[in-house]
């Protein structure tokens, strides 16, 4: 069946090969690059990020090599509102956001897909490493590149209109294929870190927008052991950059255990105090039929993170996850993606955690 496909082309090798595969499969493919910054020169370039002028040019050259039409769509205002402002407000509230996941949810599979469907396209094609038949989302076969976690926020309707041509292939094979196809970005490094933080300094980025807000760093007993310039600059599980002047009595490293925006306090303690045995979430998004009662599955708590066996129970406003063994470094604001083997069942945002 021939589809009208809009291929999201970031300027990298993955999205270029995904578009090429969709065209080779006989679909009517149009490439589009999303301009996500009103001033793209200020975003970092090369291997350190994405969404630059260089990336837009690379995407256009790839589309020419494939032989498909190509356009640039300005989604900068939507990206700033739904991803950048969300990132800042989540940190201000003491939570830990995932901007790449939010970009997939709000930009690629909301703004982009909505516009594509309105223009008569049947599907959006992306370079994510995941597998889907339109109804079931599964992990990609390359465990080092699997991106099903950041796609777990998609709704069943969005999944029905999504193509992921790379899910059955490893990254090394994709680079070789790009070279064979004459796509110039075959050896282009993957982007890293947060694309909208030009110098990679997340703390400085947040301070510029939220200002300084000095406060105490305390241990689990409430004793002040240091000072900070803003609790928003810390994340649960963080070890480095804590600015603690007083060593722990046992001489062991200390980690961020809690962030309280209400009191502007950061609490630190030993690594084992990070253990979490129970998680509550907000309302889930199901990619499988919603279970009526408790059930067993696996949960992934961060991109490329460990998978933890758990029991899931319905809760008043979301889910309650009972972990079979403690997990560490779990923070409110992160996404809990639920799996049955390699199949994604659904996802929900973590609201609270419980320690033993």
Automatic annotation (TrEMBL):
Main location: cytoplasm
Record-listed E.C. numbers: 2.8.1.13
MF annotations from Gene Ontology: ATP binding; tRNA binding; tRNA-uridine 2-sulfurtransferase activity
Cited InterPro entries: MnmA-like (IPR004506), MnmA-like_C (IPR046885), MnmA-like_central (IPR046884), MnmA-like_central_sf (IPR023382), Rossmann-like_a/b/a_fold (IPR014729)
Signal peptide span: none
Top EC class, one word: transferase
Sites where the protein binds ATP: 8-15, 34, 127
Chain positions covered by the region annotation Interaction with tRNA: 145-147
Annotated keywords: ATP-binding, Cytoplasm, Disulfide bond, Nucleotide-binding, RNA-binding, Transferase, tRNA processing, tRNA-binding
One GO CC term, this protein: cytoplasm
Gene Ontology biological process terms from the UniProt entry: tRNA wobble position uridine thiolation
Xref: CDD domains: MnmA_TRMU-like
Superkingdom, natural source: Bacteria
Record's keyword annotation contains Cytoplasm: yes
Record-linked Gene3D superfamilies: Adenine nucleotide alpha hydrolases-like domains (2.30.30.280), HUPs (3.40.50.620), Translation factors (2.40.30.10)
All copies of domain tRNA-specific 2-thiouridylase MnmA-like C-terminal, residue ranges: 277-350
Residue stretches making up the tRNA-specific 2-thiouridylase MnmA-like central domain: 204-269
Site feature Interaction with tRNA, where: 128, 334
A Pfam entry, by short name: tRNA_Me_trans_C
Protein family: Belongs to the MnmA/TRMU family.
Function field: Catalyzes the 2-thiolation of uridine at the wobble position (U34) of tRNA, leading to the formation of s(2)U34.
Protein name: tRNA-specific 2-thiouridylase MnmA
Organism of this sequence: Actinomadura rubteroloni
Source lineage: Bacteria, Bacillati, Actinomycetota, Actinomycetes, Streptosporangiales
Originating gene: mnmA
């Amino acid at each position: 069946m021939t589809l009208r496909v809009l291929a999201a082309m970031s300027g990298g090798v993955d999205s270029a090969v995904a578009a090429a595969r969709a065209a080779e499969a006989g679909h009517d493919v149009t490439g589009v690059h999303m301009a996500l910054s009103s001033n793209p020169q200020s975003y970092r370039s090369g291997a350190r990020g994405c969404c630059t002028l260089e990336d837009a040019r690379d995407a256009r050259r790839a589309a020419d090599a494939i032989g498909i039409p190509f356009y640039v769509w300005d989604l900068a205002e939507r990206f700033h509102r739904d991803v950048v402002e969300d990132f800042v407000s989540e940190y201000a509230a003491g939570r830990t956001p995932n901007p790449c996941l939010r970009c997939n949810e709000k930009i690629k599979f909301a703004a982009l897909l909505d516009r594509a469907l309105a223009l008569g396209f049947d599907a959006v094609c992306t370079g994510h490493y995941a597998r889907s038949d339109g109804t079931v989302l599964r992990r990609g076969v390359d465990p080092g590149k699997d991106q099903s976690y950041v796609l777990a926020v998609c709704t069943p309707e969005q999944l029905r209109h999504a193509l992921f041509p790379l899910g059955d292939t490893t990254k090394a094979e994709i680079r070789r294929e790009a070279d064979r196809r004459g796509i110039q970005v075959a050896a282009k490094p993957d982007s890293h870190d947060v694309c909208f933080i030009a110098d990679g300094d997340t703390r400085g980025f947040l301070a510029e927008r939220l200002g300084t807000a000095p406060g105490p760093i305390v241990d689990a007993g409430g004793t002040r052991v240091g000072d900070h310039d803003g609790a928003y600059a810390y994340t649960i599980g963080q070890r480095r950059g804590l600015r603690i002047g007083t060593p722990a009595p046992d001489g062991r490293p200390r980690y961020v255990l809690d962030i309280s925006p209400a009191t502007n306090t950061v609490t630190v303690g030993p690594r084992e105090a990070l253990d979490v045995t129970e998680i509550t979430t907000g309302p889930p998004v199901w990619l499988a039929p919603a279970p009526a009662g408790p059930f067993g599955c696996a949960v992934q708590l961060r991109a490329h993170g460990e998978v933890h066996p758990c029991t899931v129970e319905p809760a008043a406003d979301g889910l309650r996850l009972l972990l079979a063994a403690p997990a560490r470094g779990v923070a409110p604001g992160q996404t809990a993606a639920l799996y049955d083997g390699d199949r994604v069942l659904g996802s929900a945002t973590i609201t609270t955690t419980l320690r033993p």
